[in-house]
Specification:
Order of helices and strands: EHHEHEHEHEHEHHEHEH
Structural class: alpha/beta
Radius of gyration: 18 Å
Number of domains: 1
CATH class: Alpha Beta
Distance between the termini: 47 Å
Strand order of the largest sheet: 1-2-3-4-5-6-7-8
Bound molecules: pyridoxine-5'-phosphate
Low-confidence stretches: none
């Protein structure tokens, strides 16, 4: 059974929409842990559109499971990671204009710079995972740059429009999982997973961890809304 890491970025997105102090992703992290999740994931973006430096600092203090920091492999982020010491760093590509991380890292093309970033992080005793598309050459290169783990991008599988397309994408994921297992890389997966499509990914026994954000936070808004409205009505009356 894979572990579950919950990405809490969207809680910060709601807070930033108003520029106030709530909802606090730090509080959300505690609730997520109390509910039994195995880890907290947050992405400190260059433009600070959701998670803030303050969130990361406090998360490091209060997270009792595993804190996984998603970040771009920039000098600024490496410095912050070395200071904060998350339990693991997941390196992702980052474009300012994107709504969310769109594709995996091109480890083949950025081999030297990624290898250097990984060396810097490992010197600080921070293990590194690389977010990659399910492609053999990317996985081979991930071993070459000495990453501990990979996170396989499940976005294409999740966005498949037909069953046949989903089957094809699943085959690519299985192929990538096989390649990573042979290379002794630990395997996580994530992006776009929801309450329907997660089943076939959770069945892949080599995948140790699933990282899920949007669908869980979205579900939280809807399943929590009934109670929130009732509580306000009670107060007003
Ligand atoms: N894994 C990585 C590397 C991501 O960038 C994201 C999105 O922040 C996720 C997992 C979670 O994706 P989703 O929000 O679609 O569940």
């Amino acid at each position: 059974m894979p572990r579950l890491g919950v990405n809490i970025d969207h809680v910060a997105t709601v807070r930033q929409a108003r520029g106030v102090a709530f909802p606090d992703p730090v509080t959300a992290a505690s609730i997520v842990e109390l509910a039994g999740a195995d880890g907290i994931v947050c992405h400190l973006r260059e433009d600070r559109r959701h998670i803030q430096d303050r969130d990361l600092r406090i998360l490091r203090e209060i997270v009792q499971t595993q804190l996984n920091l998603e970040m771009a492999a920039t000098e600024e982020m490496i410095r912050i990671a070395l200071m904060t010491k998350p339990d693991i760093v997941t390196l992702v590509p980052e474009k300012r204009e994107e709504l969310t991380t769109e594709g995996g890292l091109d480890v083949v093309k950025n081999f030297r710079s990624l290898k250097k970033a990984i060396q810097q992080l490992r010197k600080g005793n921070i293990p590194v995972s690389l977010f990659v598309d399910p492609e053999r050459n990317q996985i081979k290169a991930s071993e070459g740059v000495e990453a501990e783990a990979i996170e396989i991008h499940t976005g294409h599988y999740c966005e498949a429009k037909t069953f046949a397309q989903a089957d094809d994408e699943l085959k690519r994921i299985l192929d990538a999982v096989g390649e990573a297992s042979r290379r002794d890389l630990r395997i996580a997966a994530g992006h776009g997973l929801n309450y329907v499509n997660v089943r076939r990914i959770a069945e892949i026994k080599e995948i140790e961890e699933l990282n899920i954000g949007h669908s869980i936070i979205a579900r939280g808004v809807l399943v929590g809304l009934d109670r929130a409205v009732r509580e306000m009505i009670e107060l007003i009356r």
